[in-house]
Amino acid sequence: MDATLNYYSSSSSGKSLSSPPSPPTTHSTSRRRGRSYNTRRRRPHLLNGNFFRRRIFGYLLLLPLLFLSAVITFVGPLSAMLFPNPLPGSIYRSHEIFQNLLTDIQSDTSSGIQLSDVWRQKMKLTEQKPCPITSHQYLETGIPDQYLIVEANGGLNQQRSSICNAVAVAGLLNATLLIPLFNFHNVWRDSSEFADIYDEDHFIATLKEYVNVVRELPKELMENYNFSISNIPNFRVPAWASANYYLKQVYPVLKEQRIVRIAPFANRLSPNLPPHIQYLRCVANYEALRFSNSIITVAKMLVNRMTVDSSNSDGNYVSIHLRFEEDMVAFSCCVYDGGKSEQLEMDSIRQKDWGDKFKRKDYIIDPVRNRINGRCPMTPLEVGMMLRGMGFANTTPIYLASGKIYQADKNVAPLRKMFPLLHTKELLTTPDELASFKDYSSRMAALDYIVCFFSEVFVTTQGGNFPHFLMGHRKFHYGHAKTIMPDKRKLVVLLHNTTISWDEFKKEMQVMLAESDHKGVAIPNIKKITRKNSLYLNPFPECQCLKKPNLFEEEY
User: Fold this and answer.
1) Rounded to whole angstroms, how far apart are CA atoms 322 and 319?
2) Of 26, 248, 344, 345, which residue is 20 to 30 A from 218 by alpha carbon distance?
3) pLDDT at 541
4) What is the model's pLDDT at position 190?
């Protein structure tokens, strides 16, 4: 047998070999059906039945092993290419981690942080310099007989930015400023006018030494436009226009026509201005703009009720600016845990509020990149986990500043489970007390702004104009922003790891709180002012010379 196999093996290699000697022949006689057979020992052949069956059986045994090897070798890399592991922080898994850690969170009885001890850093201001000399040309030449009209668009604090910029432009062009008009927008849906939000008398009186402000335009001038401001030609100013642009492009038109209308006016002035014009922004934002008496009255009531409900923490409370409203979630194009129904609902809201903006070919929607870059609104659950991790006890009083939260019943429930003492302006008031505010988003936002201003700890979760201005006001009045500013890029990575322990998470959150403490007193060394480091966020050193008001009414 071995010789035979060696023969076939050698033959198959293509070498010519002589025939092996014939085996000895034996004869035996067998009788079957009358016939005799001469039987001899034969060489097994590849096609011999028994031999072939044994070979096939062996191959069949090898096939599963070969298949398994192929799966390991090829399917693994192929599946990695077709279904790669998600990048850290790219997927919303916070709800899974919350369920994993809920027992640890609820059983964490370590001593909670005292609200009065959260902020330990102190601001180190340099010697106060005198305010820059502001041009008072009209005091010498009389009240300017040329008028500036602006239409402030956007929400509460985008309008605030436009008002401050309008004061600066009026001073730059030596123009009389008409009380700014508010543009109605289908997203904010607020028809409020200037006097509904701010104290007009205080605004005019505070600015009288710098810029002349009027409520109405002269009749003889309006006759030329059939007594309609909309008939006045609109001057289209590019975004972030420089002071030089206004002097060379806008001023000649103003001098010739005596009137200029600029709409829209949001973001129409550069952050960098000559010091005496920049100072007008400081005066407008930190002194001239005070909320109307109707807003202050209700805001005082809210602050007092929050203080009473925070008696266990010496009247101190935490305020959270939560941007998990329907429109904000839709605008962010981020994906959460709602599946197909969430996607369809967000598509519907985007279409209703912004038309085909998100369907344009040049508009890239990338939820993964948005989340990794920290651009997705934090959910109430994520905010609650962060605060518990930082050391805030479940007895901490919380004020939630927000519009209509997306799927509020579902999404607020985890936050309330972690912090039962959760308040909103709706919960602190009766329907009658909020009746004159309910259909006006800017007035409601103004109430939130004031209640957040007086909190011991303010938490910003998404950025935007609201926290931008509020942090500046808190830094201006308290010498510390007293604001938790989450590192959201770091946070999404932590909340992507479903095996993270509660102790690990707490350690990272406490580092984040310490970083916020340092940022709260930091005075950036600014060589060039940009939108991200404007005086609305960082009032020092540019606005340092202003006298700080002490009374509540003067602050607002």
Assistant:
1) 9
2) 248
3) 85
4) 83
What is d(CA 194, CA 199) in angstroms, rounded to the nearest whole number? 8
Q: What residue type is 64 in one-letter code?
A: P
* Dihedral sign for Cα atoms in the order 171, 173, 177, 183: negative
Q: What is the pLDDT of residue 71?
A: 56
Better-predicted residue by pLDDT, 135 or 435: 435
As to burial, measured by CB atoms within 10 angstroms (0-12 exposed, 13-18 middle, 19+ buried), residue 333 is middle
Measured distance CA(539)–CA(472) in Å, rounded:
6
Mapping DSSP to helix (H, G, I), strand (E, B) and coil, where does residue 181 land?
strand
Q: What is the pLDDT of residues 493-528, one digit of tens each?
A: 999 999 999 999 999 999 999 999 999 999 877 666
Helices (H) and strands (E) in the chain, counts: 24, 12
Which pLDDT band, with edges at 50, 70 and 90, does 531 fall under?
A: low
Place of tokens 């810029």: 211
Query: Which token pair is 67?
Result: 């298949």
Residue found by looking up tokens 């030329």 in the block: 224
* Residues ≥6 apart with Cβ < 8 Å to 22: none
Strands 318-321 and 457-460: parallel
H or E element in which residue 552 lies? helix 552-555
Residue 90 above 80 pLDDT? yes
490/500 Cα distance (integer angstroms): 14
The residue behind tokens 């938790």 is 484
pTM above 0.85, yes or no: no
Place of tokens 């000649």: 252
Beta strands in 9-53, from DSSP E residues, in sequence order: 29-32, 35-38
Reduce the DSSP state of residue 353 to 3 states and report it. helix
Residue 335 near residue 92, CB atoms below 8 Å: yes
